[in-house]
Amino acid sequence: MAEQVIKPDLDFVKGVIAAGGDSLKKCYQCATCSVVCNVTPDQNPFPRKEMVWAQWGLKEKFKGNPDVWLCHQCNDCTAYCPRDAKPGEVLGAIRKQTIAQYSSPSALVDFVNNKSSMILLILIPAVIVGLVISMFGSWSPEGEVIFSNFMPILAIQFLFTPALLFGVGVGIMGMRKFWADMKEANGVTTGDLKGSVTAMFKELMSHEKFKECDESKDRATSHLLVFYSFIALGIATALGVLYIDILHLESPFRFGYGTPIKIFGTVGAIAILAGSYLMMSNRFKHADRVGLGSYFDWLLIGLIGTIGVSGTLAWLTRVAGIGGLAYPLYFIHLVVVLSLFVYLPFSKLAHMFYRGAALSFNKYSGREALAEAQPAVEAAAAPVKSPSESEQTGTETKQESGQE
Amino acid sequence: MSEHEKNILVIGGGISGLTTACEAAEAGYNVVLVEKDPFLGGRVTRLHQYFPKLCPPACGLEINFKRIRFSDRITYYTMAEIEDISGGPGNYNVTVKARPRFVNDKCTACGACAEACPVEVPNDFNAGLSMRKAAYLPYEQAFPMQYVIDEGACKKGDCTACKDACKYDAIDLDMKPDTLAIEASAIVLAAGWKPYDASKIDNLGFGTSKNIITNVMMERIASLSGPTQGKITRPSDGKEAKKVAFVQCAGSRDENHLAFCSAVCCLASLKQATYVREQYKDSEVTMYYIDIRTPGTSYERFLNKIKEDEKVKLIKGKVARVHEDPATGDVIVEAEDIYGGSKIREPFDLCVLATGMEPMISGVKLPSDVKINENGFAVMGKDQKGIYAVGCAKDPVDVAKSVQSATSAALKAIQTVGRLS
Ligand SMILES: Cc1cc2nc3c(=O)[nH]c(=O)nc-3n(C[C@H](O)[C@H](O)[C@H](O)COP(=O)(O)OP(=O)(O)OC[C@H]3O[C@@H](n4cnc5c(N)ncnc54)[C@H](O)[C@@H]3O)c2cc1C
Ligand code: SF4
Ligand code: SF4
Ligand code: SF4
Ligand code: SF4
Predict the structure, then answer these.
(1) Which residue's alpha carbon is at the smallest distance from atom 3 of ligand 3?
(2) What CATH fold (topology level) applies to the domain A107-364?
(3) In CATH, what number is assigned to the domain containing residue B285?
(4) Do B290 and A28 touch (CB under 8 A)?
(5) pTM above the 0.80 mark?
(6) What's the complex ipTM?
(7) Mean pLDDT of chain A
(8) Phi, psi at residue B281, to the nearest 5°?
(9) CA 20 to 30 Å from A178, out of A5, A345, B155, B173?
(10) Residue A159 Cβ contacting ligand 2 at under 6 Å
């Protein structure tokens, strides 16, 4: 790194620290993390290099860097880091920063992930949903508990379809920008796009890479559950749209049990509850070795958990005919689902776009194949610096002067 | 009692404690030295050579033992530990408990008892790399040159083989523990260090392969009086170890283990690299480091000289995984070569973990005014009175610095005695 001109971006460093990477400064560049990481490639492995870039505020280095997204935050590295610099958490914080780089408007990333805006974060969608109910629905429908009397299906579609389109649209735009940057930064011009994306989806289905982690193996299970719950609930919703808009059936939700829509809905509900519960308990279980995680992480876990709990309870209380509970629970459910849609590209959930792109790119560029083809690389003897010089390579003293 | 009749108590008979004791005695003061092991000299007795001069530690130790033998002011107790310290500067009352040696002064070190003894146990002096009898001499040049019977290993009662074999009536299997009361004006803490338990560093594979050893084991393997008579071979099959890896900071500078830099292990590995390179002309050594710490001009020169040897590779990158290849017995060492920009996995005949020095002073029951820091070393305040820590009881240091601190503590102890009487 001797010939490099260093242009530190202090705001970037501050951003990483604020996003939960406050242990960053402790890193002394020993590279334990790169070795214990089971998913990093052999050539230019992460996360050691990301630690020094982040310490130095080399924001440019993260432009089009797929590596931070190859990390699954399993925290094997954090458990073995001799300085308690929590590289796994720092990478999480860096990912938040890159989300801000690519999801526009980036101000929304700060808003969504800032603890102090939490109340507004919930209040705004609550007011919107409330307004729609006041205009098109009824706050206290009479008789049997029927959710479409509370909030008509058309009103749901009117509100949620644009919200989802917005979220996904912003995500896709960011992903395209990121893809172009990755190609430029890594000097890759062509590759097998279809093949890479297919391979990525295959890997995703089995969570193969995720399972390679040692320290918090059980995270693969919880992530898998939430992942499939999203798919199942997505299918249930799509079926709903199919019934109402295409087949013009009145209320598909009143069909008996055992219909596909109910099966997907129920399986999805169980999976999301179990998955989000495991996510939370895993965080606590591994807290002493790898830390509890940041607001960025908890916001997503919180949203998903609330969706699962409110949705299930609303359904149960509806079946039980307790309107006084069912409607408020359904209201909460609608608010969090709307939040999830709109915040999709700005919260930690944006990882579905950027991680998906990075994993595909890793195949597209041939980096992954290269890593698997030559596992052992002979080391060239490196020149040893004198202690005074090497003291400068990544110890606290230097980084501090580099930042202040 | 005149000031010269008062005692200075030294706890620990390593190079630091010995030096303190000799300096104070030669200045005319009475010294009581209490050592936990059956022999004096401490950890350096296990070293093959000293860095940077590569001379055997025996020379320096021999001089100190001579000083003790010829001094009538030093009383030493081996196999003894502190039970209690009360009082204050000028009038400490110390209770010492001495374990029985079962062998008295009549011992001529003829060795007949060891030959007769039927019990074999791992030899802790050789870090478990060889076996010894329950009746044994700690090592060839041990001081005192007197056999000892290992109470834990001896079959007791059932067996009198050693006693029967001794022609000098030197064995008394009924010897009892002894409690001594010592009055002292000043106390010097010289309890030194022990090697950090390498099996706690689970990613470095110690205990999973015989060919993953610690630096202390390497000293024994290289030593002419060691388990292999100085031939550097790998423990699993005795094959000549010609390709050797050194893993620096194994358990030191690590929040999960010892948070501090043990200060001597970089130099120790460089020194051990010369053991290998001297023995086999076609050998190769690789040392994996975070940064190499060789403070001071003479140590810097030592490093530079070793760097001239092109068969010694120095790679920046901490080793984070070591495991044995079951097919060959080779040890695979994994690191990121930071300058080379890639992860590397290299096979070696032998992998030496440069484990650090864990302070022992916390094992001594000390008066409450002696503070121990978060790393386990004794903290010496500016106006410290009566009790002084030296050598590795105070900091992780080499022999030269141990001796320096011992000399200055001897002086302070003398002043305490003088001032208070
Ligand atoms: C692998 C390795 C190689 C090294 N090589 C070198 C080298 O080449 N050159 C060099 O300068 N330094 C070297 N060192 C450092 C050197 O070993 C230390 O500087 C030296 O041992 C310090 O001496 P000490 O007397 O303070 O401690 P020690 O040698 O540990 O002596 C302490 C003594 O106190 C006794 N004791 C402990 N607890 C009690 C108790 N509760 N009651 C009574 N007695 C007690 C112990 O039994 C021991 O005899 C090396 C270190 C390592 C790890
Ligand atoms: S100090 Fe921690 S984060 Fe830094 S290189 Fe070492 S293991 Fe990685
Ligand atoms: S958190 Fe896991 S995947 Fe991410 S860098 Fe650390 S070890 Fe690798
Ligand atoms: S105890 Fe007796 S037999 Fe054993 S070494 Fe001493 S003199 Fe010889
Ligand atoms: S002396 Fe060297 S090997 Fe030992 S802890 Fe310090 S830096 Fe690490």
Answers:
(1) A71
(2) Fumarate Reductase Cytochrome B subunit (1.20.950)
(3) 3.50.50.60
(4) yes
(5) yes
(6) 0.88
(7) 84
(8) -65, -30
(9) A5
(10) no
